[in-house]
Amino acid sequence: MKIKKITIREQSVLAALLLIWEDSVRQSHHFLTEADITGLRPLVLQGLAQIPELWGLCTLDGTYAGFMGIDGQKLEMLFIKGDQRGRGLGSLLLAQAIEKLGVTEVDVNEQNPQAQDFYYKHGFYQGVRSELDGQGNPFPILHLSLQEKLKKGGKL
Fold first, then answer.
1. Where are the extended beta strands (E) located within the chain?
2. pTM for this predicted structure
């Protein structure tokens, strides 16, 4: 696997990433209905096209196994293809984000305990809690920050 910056945002690339997002969400965001997922698709596609830093995790054959999007110090999205989950690929992307790209913040759905555990395991802690998500839906968001020891050069 290789992590590479995605600089060309062609429709085929964005469509491949959208499929990974949907596959991952179906396995981890059990609180979302089919209508919720359908409604989020255009917003995710727009976000993929506009996020300042987009990085993909590529297999040897050049297909994407996962991706992450970063805006400044904030990890805006990190998704791994369903059949690739549990193999350390999310940790690989997150290490790149923290150690090389300066990420110190991430938001996570309160109703997604898998994601919470993942980020807590990697040194994040909960700060503020928002009752609504970014679209005003009743899906509480936890705003996480990286612990001070990691910010100052410690390792994951």
1. 2-5, 53-58, 64-71, 74-80, 105-109, 124-130, 141-146
2. 0.87
pLDDT digits (tens, 9 = 90+) for 132-142: 988 888 999 99
Q: Which residues fall within 8 angstroms of residue 103, CB to CB, at 6 or more apart?
A: 70, 73, 74, 75, 94, 97, 146
- Cβ proximity of 73 and 15 under 8 Å: no
* Exposure class string for 39-56: b at 16+ Cβ within 10 A, else e: ebeeebbebbeebebbbb
Residues with Cβ within 8 Å of 14's Cβ and at least 6 positions away in sequence, in order, are 45, 48, 49
**CA angle centred on 73, ends 24 and 124, rounded to 5°:** 65
* Residue 100 Cα distances to 88, 127, 144, angstroms: 18, 23, 19
- Return the bridge partners of 130, or none: 141
